[in-house]
Automatic annotation (TrEMBL), chain A:
Organism: Marinibacterium profundimaris
InterPro entries attached to this UniProt entry: DUF2063, DUF2063_N_sf
Putative DNA-binding domain residues: 5-95
Pfam families for the chain: DUF2063
Name this protein carries in UniProt: Putative DNA-binding domain-containing protein
TrEMBL record, chain B:
Signal sequence extent: none
Chain segments annotated as transmembrane: none
Pfam families associated with the record: MbnB_TglH_ChrH
UniProt-listed InterPro entries: MbnB/TglH/ChrH, Xyl_isomerase-like_sf
Protein name: UPF0276 protein ATO3_15925
Family to which this protein belongs: Belongs to the UPF0276 family.
HAMAP family, alphabetized: UPF0276
Amino acid sequence: MSPDQTTFHAALLDPESAVPEGLSGPDNHPAGRRFDVYRNNVAVSLTEALHTAFPTIARLLGKQNMDGLARLYLRAHPPQTPLMMHYGGAFPDFLAGMPQLAHLGYLPDIARLDLAMRRAYHAADAAPADLSDIAPETLLQSALSLAPAMQLIRSAWPIHAIWRFNTEEGAPKPEPGPEDVVILRPAYDPLPQRLPPGGAAFLQALVDGATVAAAHETACTETPGFDPGPVLALLIRGAAITGLANQD
Amino acid sequence: MLDTGHPTRLPAAPGVGFKPQHFAAITENPGAVRWIEIHAENYMGDGGRPLAQLRALAERFPVSVHGVGLSIGGEGPLDPDHLARLKHLVSWLDPASFSEHLAWSTHDSHFLNDLLPLPYTKDTLTRVAAHIDQVQDNVGRPMLLENPSSYLAFDDSTWSEPEFLAELSKRTDCGLLLDINNVFISATNLGFSPQGYIDAFPLDRVGEVHLGGHDEDHDDHGAPLLIDSHGRAVADPVWALLAYTLARSGPRPLLIEWDTDVPDWPVLEAEAARAAHALVPAG
């Protein structure tokens, strides 16, 4: 009897298990390492998908460590969809749960940054709104529609500096401290940018539907004296404001 | 389209599997390349550069949509979400051809990202035919089904692969995608004649031909074991098998697949030019 797909599937994901019976090479030899070609294809293709999805993690850990983690992850979390662009959603929490990585506490948040970069890359297109004729008072009383590509990540670690250090030639060495990041996609290339203190609270309030004035107030309770001007300028340069909804 | 026997609007000329890094080169000077193929699953995001590139390419080239994730051979039902995504892509893009594989890749909601083999039995035939009917009804057009590369055989199989594909095509009216590299790999790995395979294949149903590179390994007994890597130039015996096929089928759309260790554009274009040359004696 040849194996059904339940048996085939179980043997594929467990390299220690015996090759299922009922599979042969020429001259009716049992399949043996011929079955390992399929095992290897699955492991290699999913490992490559994780390298693509988490380039900063791969650079931080090196290829060999990343390969090892990927082999563990793909067995614990096989993809739930044929869209490889979505694979790896559980990887940040998986990293957080690895005792041998506990000394690299920033890794899960860097993985979240990598994930958010990929989400931004594939997000729906949205034309920026023309704000040139909008009076400041109107803007303050409006809620903003924001581009689907915009992603917000808050971290207790210097994730933007770590990202830069692993991406840019000659970037400064990261210093300890929390960093909040907004990812914007003015054209097709997502760019993570560091937010000033209060900026993440301001943006989160806007995402939740607050007017600019109300979001400003929210940010000030967290960061007294917060100035929304630079963050709004960041959003405009990043083509992230796609419309206004006047609250009057 | 169906009454021609091979449902495709691709030209009988060379095409290449599109890689984003070749976008500028191919739009500037496609050389021998007359059409492109994309993997459907890479263009199922909401927006961004992949879809922008695809829209631009579709204005200049016939496009073949080649699915790698539907798991038509799966024992379970087809994923309705994935069927809906395919239908959406095919609806807005209106590609010249839509194809998938005689293989399975999803089981128990796990997607394994590989094209896994099937026993060629009556049960498999019934199930795969029903899935093809469902796909064609859902997507609203006939599809091409591709022959796999095989590393092992199922002891339960009672059909040869060409007979199995011919019967599926007859039952469902689907066309076939003949991967010559896969034929050569399977013939070498399982010890049958590649020419005999082509002789038994319903060539009138072939709407597209694939060519790609393979790696060489061996099994536990020292027998050759070819691996379908798509990571190098097409091997000479595969070109020879293509000539054998085209002499019997007449010209067909020929695709160069190069998916790993992807070369610079001139190397890929040169493979397409070789395919153009292969089409001449057949024409």
